[in-house]
Amino acid sequence: MADIVLDKVSKKFPDGTIAASDVDLEVGDGEFVILVGPSGCGKSTTLNMIAGLEDISSGDLYIGGERMNDKAPKDRDIAMVFQSYALYPNMTVRENMSFPLRLAKLDKATVAQKVDEAARVLELEQLLDRKPANLSGGQRQRVAMGRAIVRSPKAYLMDEPLSNLDAKLRVQMRTQVSRLQKQLGTTTVYVTHDQTEAMTLGDRVVVMRQGRVQQVGPPQELYDSPANLFVAGFIGSPAMNFVHARLTDGQLSSVLGDVSLSGSLRRALAASDAPADLILGIRPEHFEDAGLVDEAHLGTGARFEGQADVVESMGSDKYVYLPLAAERASTAELDELAADAGATDLPASGAQLVTRLSAESPATEGAQVRVWFNPEKIHLFDPETGRNLTLAR
Amino acid sequence: MGAGFGEATPARRWRWGLLDLAVIAFALIPVLWIASLSFKTTATLTDGRLIPAEWTLENYQSIFDTSQFTRALVNSIGIALISTAIAVVLGMLAAYAVARLDFPGKRALIGVSLLIAMFPQVSLVSPLFDIERRLGLFDTWPGLILPYITFALPLAIYTQSAFFRQIPWDLEKAAKMDGATQAQAFRRVIAPLAAPGVVTTAILVFIFAWNDFLFAVTLTSTERSRTAPVALSFFTGDSQFEDPTGSISAAAVVITIPIIIFVLLFQRRIVSGLTSGAVKG
């Protein structure tokens, strides 16, 4: 077991594209760290550099305190689970799992014992003599995990290991991966584009965009205090609502109405030298049907009324979509997030407000709906830099 | 069969059956004719019947009477096997590089190997004759093996690189992560998966070398290195007026047999989908 330290690690490909720039990251011994971001953000490249499958253009990589830049993958003593599983089709499950041990020239008895042990942990005992072609997707995934854990490496690297499974199996495997990692206590770096996996699995999450680390922190911290627009928009589902807003004398006016800011928010804005034009962000789950909020709270919050465009009842709660009389807030970050979510492929529609209300809300499609939100829950961003100006509150 | 072509109605089946039969007849009748000639006696050679009126093994006995044909067979087998082995191994290494690596001059290499494949061999025969005479390669095994390798390599590189491209690169990465060196990854993971491609290539190269007449007739002069197809053309009758058709047919049948054996032995290995189950769910 070991810690992994990336010190200003960059990757520049021969054609000039920069896949990762100045990535600084410290993964503690036994820690489970998730690299997340839209496709092309450099998360897989970063993982491959740790693995040794890609050369590091500049910066240093340390595993267990030892500089690893020039070591071949086989000399780094780390195991990797691939998105495609990469099982050797000409070998049985047993041969697949014992391959790393046989390469390490362990004696036959030890190999057999270790493979049996790993097979028991992953419930693969019945499948040891089958070929990968005769396994289901979930079984193949477990074999891939087995091949990684069998030699007790210093660290595991996982490259979207669950993304080829169907939705139900993915949830099951997710908990299994989590349990396995806790049980083994081995340092793990896990790449995913699925934010549910990012939020549920990791001790800490690293959000990346265009080869740069945007924010590193525990999942809840990323959700509560996103460092910038990109993290705010990326973490959380459905995504945070963003609208343009203007600040005048502590009053914030936007398409959601005028809101007077609390003292702490004002101080935070003043401290960070905020411009007058801002982007207001608020999460769908921070809205409530105004009819369900008691009088005492109603006064302290802000209200917005609109004709419900679409109402999706999830049983536990209701998603209500309200049209907004404004353009969708647009910055480089938000456009990239929209592109990643596929929103740019949809026919152009005006901005809309996504709200998540209690199931008791009487909202129906086409009806007027009044929603309430707590101004304390809003985030304000600098449209130029994307920086979150309300972090200091 | 049938899938995507609509239902197999009796009428359709008949049509396809007739077409298949025509194709098979077109390919096999000349072969059957040769086989039939090889079993005929000299007197009945020209009777125009497919099934010999009188069966005889005389033709076969006659070709094995002298060392001329047996020696040529040994030459043919030796030269074709050695050429195949070298061309396939060199081709495998080159194909792996072409499929997997980006190196300066890759396009030039592919272009040049295509050029060699398209080059008319006839135009090379006289220069090669002169070169080999001076180098002392004329009428030797290496004298034939070398040009065979040259002309088989483009084929070997092309077919094998197509197979290498089908092997998921992740497998090689996985092998490296599992502690294999580049050489071990190739030998223990990639090469076994490329086996069908290697075997297919080996068959094609072997047939090319085995069938060659042009180089064999110009670059050899004695039994020392003369191959079977050439030896066959040197057959004569017992007298000037006797037709050697019977013995030529017998020899033709004999030299077809190794190819048939070769293909039958290896066709089981030429199964596609050997890599299935490697990746994805």
Keyword list:
heterodimer, A: 393 residues, alpha+beta, 6-stranded mixed beta sheet, 5-stranded antiparallel beta sheet, 11 helices, 21 strands, elongated, B: 281 residues, mainly alpha, MetI-like fold, 2 domains, 69% helix
Which descriptor suits the 3D outline of chain A?
A: elongated
CATH architecture of the largest domain in chain B: Orthogonal Bundle
Beta strand % of chain A: 25-35%
Average predicted confidence as pLDDT of chain B: 86
Mean pLDDT of chain A: 90
The CATH superfamily of the largest domain in chain B appears as: MetI-like
What would you note in describing this structure?
The complex is a heterodimer of chains A (393) and B (281). Chain A has helices spanning 43-51, 93-103, 108-121, 137-149, 167-184, 195-201, 219-224, 229-234, 263-271, 295-300, 332-340, and strands at 4-12, 18-27, 32-36, 58-63, 66-67, 78-81, 155-159, 187-192, 204-209, 212-217, 241-248, 251-254, 257-260, 277-282, 287-289, 302-307, 310-313, 317-323, 352-358, 368-373, 379-381. Chain A is an alpha+beta fold. Chain A has a six-stranded mixed sheet with strand order 6-7-8-3-9-10, with helices on both faces. A five-stranded antiparallel sheet of chain A has the order 13-12-11-14-21. Chain B has 281 residues and is an all-alpha fold. Chain B has two domains: 2-44; 63-280, MetI-like fold (Orthogonal Bundle), CATH 1.10.3720.10. In chain B, α3 (67-100) packs parallel to α6. The longest helix of chain B has 34 residues, at 67-100. The chains are: A alpha+beta (393), B mainly alpha (281). Chains A and B meet through β6, α2 and α4 of A and α7 and α8 of B.
